[in-house]
Amino acid sequence: MTPKPDPAPKRHPFRLHPDIRATLEINPDQHSPVTSHSRLASFRYALAGSLHVLRYGKNIRIQALATVVVFAMGVWIGLSSESWAILVLTVTINWMAEFTNSAIEAAVNLASPEHHPMARVSKDVAAGTSLLAACAAVIIGLLLLGPPLLSK
Protein backbone atom coordinates (compact mmCIF):
# COMPACT_ATOMS: atom_id res chain seq x y z
CA MET A 1 0.00 0.00 0.00
CA THR A 2 1.20 3.43 -0.84
CA PRO A 3 0.92 6.02 1.89
CA LYS A 4 -1.52 8.86 1.28
CA PRO A 5 0.08 12.26 0.79
CA ASP A 6 -0.44 14.75 3.57
CA PRO A 7 -3.39 16.98 2.74
CA ALA A 8 -2.71 20.67 2.23
CA PRO A 9 -2.98 22.58 5.49
CA LYS A 10 -6.48 23.87 5.95
CA ARG A 11 -6.88 27.57 6.02
CA HIS A 12 -9.31 28.99 8.53
CA PRO A 13 -12.26 30.39 6.55
CA PHE A 14 -12.18 33.74 8.39
CA ARG A 15 -8.43 34.21 8.46
CA LEU A 16 -7.45 37.37 6.65
CA HIS A 17 -4.67 37.52 4.12
CA PRO A 18 -1.41 38.90 5.60
CA ASP A 19 -1.61 41.98 3.33
CA ILE A 20 -5.05 42.81 4.70
CA ARG A 21 -3.96 42.18 8.29
CA ALA A 22 -0.93 44.43 7.80
CA THR A 23 -3.14 47.30 6.68
CA LEU A 24 -5.64 46.76 9.50
CA GLU A 25 -2.86 46.83 12.10
CA ILE A 26 -1.73 50.36 11.14
CA ASN A 27 -2.87 52.81 13.79
CA PRO A 28 -3.39 56.24 12.16
CA ASP A 29 -2.75 57.98 15.50
CA GLN A 30 0.89 56.84 15.26
CA HIS A 31 1.39 58.33 11.79
CA SER A 32 -0.63 61.54 11.77
CA PRO A 33 0.56 64.72 13.44
CA VAL A 34 -3.00 65.78 14.21
CA THR A 35 -5.81 63.41 15.04
CA SER A 36 -9.06 64.21 16.71
CA HIS A 37 -10.11 62.30 19.79
CA SER A 38 -13.38 64.22 20.04
CA ARG A 39 -16.42 63.53 17.87
CA LEU A 40 -17.44 67.17 18.22
CA ALA A 41 -14.02 68.30 16.97
CA SER A 42 -14.31 65.88 14.04
CA PHE A 43 -17.68 67.40 13.17
CA ARG A 44 -16.15 70.91 13.32
CA TYR A 45 -13.33 69.82 10.99
CA ALA A 46 -15.87 68.39 8.54
CA LEU A 47 -17.88 71.61 8.70
CA ALA A 48 -14.72 73.67 8.18
CA GLY A 49 -13.81 71.58 5.11
CA SER A 50 -17.30 71.96 3.69
CA LEU A 51 -17.28 75.72 4.22
CA HIS A 52 -13.82 75.92 2.64
CA VAL A 53 -15.10 74.23 -0.51
CA LEU A 54 -18.15 76.51 -0.56
CA ARG A 55 -15.95 79.58 -0.21
CA TYR A 56 -13.11 78.71 -2.58
CA GLY A 57 -14.54 76.09 -4.95
CA LYS A 58 -14.51 77.40 -8.49
CA ASN A 59 -17.63 75.60 -9.70
CA ILE A 60 -19.46 75.31 -6.41
CA ARG A 61 -21.62 78.41 -6.90
CA ILE A 62 -22.95 76.99 -10.18
CA GLN A 63 -23.62 73.71 -8.42
CA ALA A 64 -25.37 75.47 -5.53
CA LEU A 65 -27.57 77.43 -7.94
CA ALA A 66 -28.40 74.27 -9.90
CA THR A 67 -29.31 72.48 -6.65
CA VAL A 68 -31.67 75.28 -5.59
CA VAL A 69 -33.30 75.42 -9.06
CA VAL A 70 -33.73 71.63 -9.26
CA PHE A 71 -35.19 71.38 -5.75
CA ALA A 72 -37.54 74.31 -6.46
CA MET A 73 -38.74 72.60 -9.63
CA GLY A 74 -39.23 69.38 -7.70
CA VAL A 75 -41.44 71.18 -5.18
CA TRP A 76 -43.35 72.98 -7.96
CA ILE A 77 -44.15 69.82 -9.92
CA GLY A 78 -44.82 67.77 -6.78
CA LEU A 79 -42.30 64.94 -7.14
CA SER A 80 -43.14 61.60 -5.55
CA SER A 81 -41.22 60.36 -2.53
CA GLU A 82 -39.29 57.92 -4.71
CA SER A 83 -38.32 60.66 -7.15
CA TRP A 84 -37.23 62.89 -4.27
CA ALA A 85 -35.06 60.09 -2.89
CA ILE A 86 -33.37 59.63 -6.27
CA LEU A 87 -32.96 63.39 -6.72
CA VAL A 88 -31.47 63.94 -3.25
CA LEU A 89 -29.10 60.99 -3.69
CA THR A 90 -28.02 62.25 -7.11
CA VAL A 91 -27.39 65.79 -5.85
CA THR A 92 -25.51 64.45 -2.82
CA ILE A 93 -23.27 62.24 -4.96
CA ASN A 94 -22.58 65.21 -7.22
CA TRP A 95 -21.59 67.39 -4.24
CA MET A 96 -19.46 64.57 -2.84
CA ALA A 97 -17.60 64.28 -6.13
CA GLU A 98 -16.88 68.01 -6.07
CA PHE A 99 -15.71 67.87 -2.44
CA THR A 100 -13.49 64.86 -3.19
CA ASN A 101 -12.07 66.63 -6.23
CA SER A 102 -11.19 69.64 -4.06
CA ALA A 103 -9.54 67.43 -1.45
CA ILE A 104 -7.45 65.60 -4.05
CA GLU A 105 -6.40 68.87 -5.68
CA ALA A 106 -5.32 70.28 -2.30
CA ALA A 107 -3.33 67.13 -1.44
CA VAL A 108 -1.64 67.10 -4.85
CA ASN A 109 -0.77 70.80 -4.56
CA LEU A 110 0.78 70.10 -1.16
CA ALA A 111 2.70 67.01 -2.30
CA SER A 112 3.84 68.46 -5.62
CA PRO A 113 4.06 72.27 -5.54
CA GLU A 114 6.01 72.27 -8.81
CA HIS A 115 4.39 71.17 -12.05
CA HIS A 116 4.66 67.43 -12.57
CA PRO A 117 2.95 65.35 -15.25
CA MET A 118 1.61 62.80 -12.73
CA ALA A 119 0.25 65.58 -10.52
CA ARG A 120 -1.61 66.85 -13.56
CA VAL A 121 -2.99 63.38 -14.27
CA SER A 122 -4.19 63.04 -10.67
CA LYS A 123 -5.92 66.40 -10.72
CA ASP A 124 -7.45 65.80 -14.15
CA VAL A 125 -8.80 62.39 -13.15
CA ALA A 126 -10.27 63.87 -9.97
CA ALA A 127 -11.91 66.61 -12.02
CA GLY A 128 -13.22 63.92 -14.35
CA THR A 129 -15.16 62.38 -11.45
CA SER A 130 -16.91 65.70 -10.92
CA LEU A 131 -17.69 65.95 -14.62
CA LEU A 132 -19.02 62.39 -14.69
CA ALA A 133 -21.23 63.04 -11.65
CA ALA A 134 -22.52 66.27 -13.20
CA CYS A 135 -23.38 64.54 -16.50
CA ALA A 136 -25.18 61.74 -14.64
CA ALA A 137 -27.05 64.33 -12.56
CA VAL A 138 -28.25 66.14 -15.69
CA ILE A 139 -29.52 62.90 -17.22
CA ILE A 140 -31.25 61.80 -14.01
CA GLY A 141 -32.70 65.29 -13.57
CA LEU A 142 -34.11 65.23 -17.09
CA LEU A 143 -35.61 61.78 -16.53
CA LEU A 144 -37.22 62.81 -13.24
CA LEU A 145 -38.23 66.38 -14.01
CA GLY A 146 -38.69 66.33 -17.79
CA PRO A 147 -41.97 64.43 -18.14
CA PRO A 148 -43.80 66.35 -15.37
CA LEU A 149 -42.48 69.67 -16.72
CA LEU A 150 -43.63 68.84 -20.25
CA SER A 151 -47.12 68.05 -18.99
CA LYS A 152 -47.50 71.38 -17.13
Could you tell me the mean pLDDT? Answer: 89
Shape: extended
- Oligomeric state of this protein: single chain
Secondary structure: number of strands = 0
Report the β-strand fraction as a percent range.
under 5%
> Largest beta sheet, briefly?
none
Helix content: over 70%
- The helix/strand order is HHHHH
Low-confidence stretches: none
Roughly how many Å is the radius of gyration? 24 Å
> How many H/I helical runs?
5
Structural class: mainly alpha
Spatial separation of the terminal alpha carbons: 87 Å
Question: Could you characterize the architecture of this molecule?
Answer:
With 152 residues, the protein is an all-alpha fold. 72% of the residues lie in helices and 0% in strands. It has 5 helices and no strands. It has helices spanning 18-24, 39-56, 60-77, 81-111, 117-151. The radius of gyration is 24 Å and the shape is extended. The relative contact order is 0.09.
In a nutshell, what does this entry contain?
This protein is mainly alpha-helical. Helices cover 72% and strands 0% of the residues.
Write the layout of secondary structure elements.
Blueprint: H1 18-24, H2 39-56, H3 60-77, H4 81-111, H5 117-151
Features:
mainly alpha; 152 residues; 5 helices; extended
